[in-house]
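Fresh eyes needed here. Have a critical look at this protein's tokenised backbone.
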Amino acid sequence: MAEYRVEVAREIAEAARPTRAYFIMTGLATVLASYGLLANSPAVIIGAMLVAMLLNPITGLSYAFVTADAALIRRAGIAEFLGAVLVFAIGFVVGSVHHDLPITQEMLVRCDPTLLDLVIAIAGGAAVSYATGNLRLNSALAGVAIATALVPPLANAGMLMAHGEPHLAAGALLLYVSNYASVLLAAMVVFWLLGHRPDREASSSRRLVRLGRLGQLALFVVLAAQLALRLADQIEARTRLVTIEKSLAVGLTEVYGARLIEVRIAPRTAPQAIVAVVRTPRPVTPAEVAQLEQTLPAAAKGELRLRVRSIPVVVANSDGYLYVDDLM
């Protein structure tokens, strides 16, 4: 068993080194991730996750914190920091070169992390440490690399910053940091449960390592609180939107031939607007919009303005056209 742990420690330490191969693979993964995000291609983004090597230094850090290996903490920490800077810089360059391209859905979905993302990263961190500690399970690391995405959100932050969207960039950066902190903490717990302990020779550095552990735990707690609040806000917003959808669907029964397709909040309008997309044989009139506003929940009245986007539609059956009076 001792020889087995020595082999695990050797592989972890070797993988956490900031080598030329590490930076080359990280750079290539960033290029893949950046263009996958710009092309709105999940397949390319997944490929970038498989190529990326940012997970290795985090595994090294977690193992070093458990075994009180100050040298490995320093080496793995430098590798992760420099790798993160490289990813952000390449993302910024790609975003600057393609500044004219629009922000895609794949970019937007990585800008609003919640507590759910934290839980996913915790499970991924536990999986990667368990697979690393059991050499026969190394084949599972590819799947973990996909689950604990590190390069795409960091590259996304750089591109969004180049697009002049610091608020969105901050959300993408938060996703990376939460994944980092969750993987690190979960891996530390699993390595400890697998029986890895500090060497006697490491006793002189244990105090410094203990401070590092407390710092990582504090970072995780702060992130968990922040992401829990974001999840609560999302749930509240979604509940509010569903209530508005139901109210508008009922109100539109009074508009001849109208059918509600989509409802969304447009936060960048002043005041904020509820945008309702309606299929109808004739445009919804301002008077009808005013009537629909009266059907909105009390909490939405006054602070949100309703905008109805009418999409013309012609409906026919075997007897002829329906809503013929509205088509003439």
